[in-house]
């Protein structure tokens, strides 16, 4: 979401938010922010009938800006659209003042919301959404290398993204490698992909993982190429490029889990968002697996009961629940998240593409680490 003129938004004062929604989630957020009697202004079209000089009538669509005092709003889950209904505040040649009209707020089209009083929750929600980093920015890059291929993963924003996949066979087939060094053409392709996806202003660490000696060979190649090309961004951050050994023939997701189990890797990202997410998931999983679950619970009923007692220290919730297409379910878990935050707890939302998403789904998609033991929660139906 783009939020223009942020200085116009002041808590407990009148103000106008100029907004461009960019994702379906932005429209859901706006559905929860826009209230009755707010004024929403947007450009729309209306069908009008025009009379010519010979008194014949023709129908045409004209563009105009409507300023509606909101009477109701409706979020359509299937199309992820937000419809606003209200009374027109201004008269113009096509729309009488005080008449009822409806328009749809669309992605990538600007509009304005004016409130008599902006509350703290609404201002914080808008600013937080506007300040989210893009999907190309992450905390950790993992380069998984095997004999014939490499995969580059970006971890951040609750998401694990496969940015690139390089096959050595496609680079060397039909010709004999003439360059010095093992897999040189292959290494060059991996190097080029890393340059494309890694921004050291954002990324905390780059991990090169493989079985055997490939990881060390590629790290040397990477640093030599950076020196040859005078790429200071790599040379100045070489301490943040580390290598990790892997077991042979691991599946992709297992490779990532093995990398994230390395103490050196975790120390390098311990204060980042992805590091916090991984550490919390592991703490919860260890409690559940070791039957030491008095300070851990999972399942909707247990988690809701724990929050009623203000016992939740950290809430872990899947994106599928928190941003469900079912409005009732989405409101339910949105209220849970808000309640946890208001009581001083932390909330971690895990995308379905997160490397640890499967573990959270095994715990019903919602779980919590508690401030104090609640042994009776074990008896509740999850």
Task: Write up this protein.
- This protein has 382 residues and is α+β, with helices and mostly antiparallel strands.
- The protein has helices at 24-33, 120-130, 168-172, 184-197, 214-228, 232-235, 252-260, 263-268, 273-289, 300-308, 319-322, 327-342, 357-362; strands at 2-4, 15-20, 39-51, 57-76, 81-88, 100-105, 111-115, 140-145, 149-156, 159-167, 205-210, 241-245, 296-298, 312-318, 346-350, 366-370.
- The strands form three sheets. A seven-stranded antiparallel sheet has the order 1-2-7-3-4-5-6, with helices on both faces. The chain has a five-stranded mixed sheet with strand order 10-9-8-11-12, with helices on both faces.
- Strand 8 (140-145) and strand 9 (149-156) form a beta hairpin.
- The radius of gyration is 27 Å and the shape is globular.
- Residues 170-183 have low confidence and may be disordered.
- One of its GO terms (molecular function) is metal ion binding.
- Keywords: Cytoplasm, Metal-binding.
């Amino acid at each position: 979401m783009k939020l223009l003129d942020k200085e116009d938004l002041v808590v407990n004062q009148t103000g106008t938010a100029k907004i461009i929604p960019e994702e379906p989630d932005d429209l859901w957020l706006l559905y929860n922010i826009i209230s009755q009697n707010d004024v929403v202004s947007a450009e729309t079209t209306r069908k009008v009938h025009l009379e010519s000089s010979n008194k014949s009538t023709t129908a045409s669509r004209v563009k105009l800006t409507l300023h509606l005092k909101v009477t109701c709003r409706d979020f359509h889950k299937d199309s992820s659209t937000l419809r606003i209904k209200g009374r027109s505040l201004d008269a113009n040649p096509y729309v009488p003042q005080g008449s009822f009209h409806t328009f749809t707020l669309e992605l990538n089209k600007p509009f304005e919301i004016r409130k008599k009083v902006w509350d703290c929750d609404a201002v914080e929600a808008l600013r937080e959404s506007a300040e989210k980093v893009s999907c190309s920015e992450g905390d950790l890059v993992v380069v998984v290398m095997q004999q014939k291929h490499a995969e580059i993963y970006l971890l951040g924003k609750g998401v694990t993204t496969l940015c690139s996949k390089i096959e050595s066979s496609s680079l060397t087939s039909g010709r004999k490698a003439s360059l010095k060094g093992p897999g040189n053409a292959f290494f060059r392709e991996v190097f080029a992909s890393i340059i494309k996806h890694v921004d050291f202003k954002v990324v905390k660490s780059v991990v090169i993982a493989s079985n055997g000696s490939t990881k060390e060979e590629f790290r040397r190649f990477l640093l030599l190429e950076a020196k040859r090309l005078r790429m200071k961004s790599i040379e100045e951050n070489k301490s943040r490029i580390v290598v990790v050994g892997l077991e042979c023939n691991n599946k992709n997701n297992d490779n990532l889990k093995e990398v994230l189990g390395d103490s050196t890797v975790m120390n390098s990202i311990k204060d980042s968002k992805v590091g916090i997410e991984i550490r919390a998931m592991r703490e919860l999983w260890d409690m559940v697996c070791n039957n030491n679950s008095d300070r851990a619970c999972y399942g909707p009923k247990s988690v809701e009961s724990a929050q009623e007692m203000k016992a939740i220290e950290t809430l872990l919730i899947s994106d599928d629940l928190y941003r469900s297409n079912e409005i009732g379910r989405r409101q339910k878990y949105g209220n849970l998240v808000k309640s946890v935050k208001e009581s001083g707890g932390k909330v971690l939302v895990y995308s379905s593409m997160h490397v640890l998403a499967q573990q959270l789904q095994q715990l019903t998609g919602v779980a919590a680490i508690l401030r104090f033991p609640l042994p009776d929660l074990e008896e509740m139906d999850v």
